[in-house]
Amino acid sequence: MSPLTQFDVLALRREFPILQQEVNGHRLAFLDSGASSQKPRVVIDCLEDYYRRFNANVHRGVYKLSEEATFAFERARGKVARFVGAASHREIVFVRNTTEAINLVAYSWGGANLGPGDRILLTLMEHHSNIVPWQMLAERTGAHLDYIGLDGEGRLALEELDTKLSERTKLVALTQQSNVLGTINPVRLIAERAHAVGAKVLVDGAQSVPHMPVAVKELGCDFLAFSGHKMCGPTGIGVLWAKRELLEAMPPFLGGGSMIKLVELDHSTYADVPTRFEAGTPAIGEAIALGEAIDFLSGVGMAAIHHYECELLAYALDRLSEVGGLTIYGPSTPVERGAAISFTLDGVHPHDVAAILDSEGVAVRAGHHCTQPLHHHLDVPATTRASFYIYNLAEEVDRLAVGLEKARKLFA
Ligand code: C6P
Asked: Between the N and C ends of the chain, which has fewer C-beta atoms within 10 Å?
């Protein structure tokens, strides 16, 4: 293949200490970044630096360490805001992960705005995190769920918008990129259609924000949820972006310390946004380290990252097409598709495929990837998935293909 020279991948790999090790006697080929990405040295160091030098609670103490921690925590919020093009840092709510961000919207916005007979439009490719909170909301409010189906290549059947979007639709919630099919959805177009009937739009950015430039204004959405751990940041920190006027009109999600203005015995008044939604001590070091991860990704350049991954994906789709008995799910061309490839290998259980690849030092994920309705639609109980990131190499794609050939021969 043509050399992947958008940036110096080999130099970049050296920034990830975990990638320098051997697994089962082979150099680790980590192809499971869709589940959680690896962390560069700067992020690990940043987390350690926080705990070593200025660990203290935020927004509380008047002493030096607490002020330093508060400054770094709020500076990280500003970095997140700039990263997704938010109008203000006040539109950024720190949560634990994508799942919590979506639950926050479902509980708070959904509880205040949905009633019996209202409809929520989802898609068949959603992660459970973008299904179950809406099912719970529907149970509480009497609202109904609708789903946009898929075409044969795992793209959204957009013509269904004509019948499934109506005046009763209060929310469209969809993923920007499928964690299984890799499909990148035309969010802007869908958001325009949704807004035309008065619905709000929530975008699950768990698999897109880490891999491509994402600007909320260009997406045209009202809510965006994503996780720090999939974008070189630590676990335990995630983000909800929402338009300020929506956040300001939303009741709190969790109650407790930090999120109040005044507490009396029989009632309380609540803090301004985003603090109103950040009850209790937040993941301080993790938020600060997410800011560091954003600096790292921005230093490489999100457009360059996307470009590199597109090249790697094109190579992988090509190379894997040489493996006999392999069925790849999702769009067959790299156009409008991210670098997550799920497949089944004839006659070999997806978990066995993953185990054989592991014996070769190639880490992939097997199972339903928290998308049981999608796997139902694909008519397979499980798939094996290879998902790529900035540190992966074409030679790791080759090792994946060789490992698959080995699995096929073993089970022939
Ligand atoms: N998908 C995967 O291996 P959390 O766990 O809250 O950080 O992210 C949830 C989530 C939501 N939406 C999408 C599209 C996702 O891919 C994920 C996480 C991982 O595919 C773990 S199941």
From this structure: C
